[in-house]
Amino acid sequence: MNGWIPAATVVLAGGLGTTLWGVSTGGLGRRVIAQNLSTALVCPGLLLLAQGYGRTSYVDLALLLALLGPVGTLVFARLLADDLAEENPAGWGPTWAAVTVGVVVVLVLCAVTGPGRAMVKLLIVGALLIGGNLLASRALSGGFPGVGRG
Amino acid sequence: MADAVIVVALLAVAVAATAAVVNRDPARQALVLAVLGTALAVLFTVLQAPDVGLSQLAVGSALTPLLIMLSVRKVRRRSAHGKDGTQ
Q1: What does pTM read for this prediction?
Q2: For residues B26 and B52, what is the distance between their CA atoms, to the nearest angstrom?
Q3: What are the TM regions of this chain, as residue ranges (chain A) (predicted)?
Q4: Does A125 touch chain B (CB under 8 A)?
C-alpha cells in the first residue's frame, strides 16, 4: 500500500466531482469550460494511478487523454461557435487552478522517477496537457477571431 | 482503502450517465457524454483494464462528441432551411 493511490483518489474525486457539477448545470459557456477542465484534472489523476500501480505503461492513457481532450474541446468550440459568441466564456481562474494541479503532479512524479526516458515521457505529457488546455481555453474565449464562423 | 478509487470512479460514471439522461438539449448532452467517456476510461483503468480504457478514451472523448455535434448542426441547418422554403 503506497500513498499514490489515495492521492489519485483525491485528485480524481475532486476533478470529476467539480466537472460533473459544472457540466450538468448552468449555461452553455460554463458547461464547455467544465468539459475542458475534466481533461486537465483527470490526466494528473491517471498519472498518479500509473505511479501507484507501479506500471509505467499506464502513462500511455494520460498521454492519449492529454492529446485528445483538447481536440474534443476544440470540436465543441468550433461547432458551438455561434452559441458561444454571445457569452465568450473565459473561465481563466479555474483553468489556471487546473494547470497548477497538473504542473505540481508532473513535477512531483518527475522528482520521484529520476532522469531517463520515463521522465521525458512525463514532461511530454505535461507540456501537451498544459499547452492543449490553454489553447482550448483561448479558443473558447473567442481568442481566434474569424475561426468557427463556417 | 484501495477500493476507494473504484468507488469514486463508479460514482462518477453513475452521476455522469444520469446527468446525460436528465439533460434534454442534444448539445448539452454531448458535453456530458464527453465527461462520461473520460469517467468510464478512469473506471476501466482502476479495474486493471487499461487497453479498454485506451480505446474508450479515443472514442469517448473526441469521436462521439464530434459525431453528435455534426448531426445536431446538420439537423438545425436543415430545419432552418425548411422554414425559409415554406415562407
Answers
A1: 0.89
A2: 27
A3: 61-81, 93-112, 119-140
A4: no
Q: How far is B14 from chain A (nearest CA, A)?
A: 11
**A32 CB-near residues (< 8 Å, 6+ apart):** A73, A76, A77, A80, A84, A89, A140, B31
Three cell numbers, residue A45: 489523476
Flag if B61 and A9 touch (Cβ within 8 Å): no
Cβ(A47)–Cβ(A103) under 8 Å?
no
3-class state of residue A29 by DSSP: helix
Give me the residue spans of the domains in chain A.
Answer: 4-140
| Sequence-distant (≥ 6) Cβ neighbours of residue A57 within 8 angstroms | A50, B50
Q: Are A140 and A87 in contact (CB under 8 A)?
A: no
Question: What are the pLDDT digits (tens) for A38-79?
Answer: 999 999 999 999 999 988 888 999 999 999 999 999 888 888
State the Rg of chain A over Cα.
Answer: 16
Phi/psi class of residue A26: alpha, beta or left (left: φ > 0; alpha: ψ in -120 to 50)?
A: left
pLDDT category of residue B87 using cuts at 50, 70 and 90? very low
CA dist., res. A102 & res. B31, Å (int): 22
Cell digits for A90?
473565459
pLDDT at residue A150 greater than cutoff 50: no
Cell of A46: 491517471
Residue tagged 468557427 (cell numbers) = A148
Choose between B8 and A140: higher pLDDT.
B8
- Chain A residue closest in CA terms to B8: A13
